Amino acid sequence: xxxxxxxxxxxxxxxxxxxxxxxxxxxxxxxxxxxxxxxxxxxxxxxxxxxxxxxxxxxxxxxxxxxxxxxxxxxx
Length: 76
Prior knowledge:
globular
């Protein structure tokens, strides 16, 4: 997605394991940046109808599911 001079990239991947303790980067240590908790969302048209942000990405994923381009899984 592009906004004026900013570009945001989004990736869809299957995660085999996840370690909250091993996360690194400035977004995890900067004060006032939030908690960065994960919420699993079913990778279904219904599951993506909720609060997945940004809405444009939810729209793309719903279209891919409807076209049979994505398998079962969850969005984190």
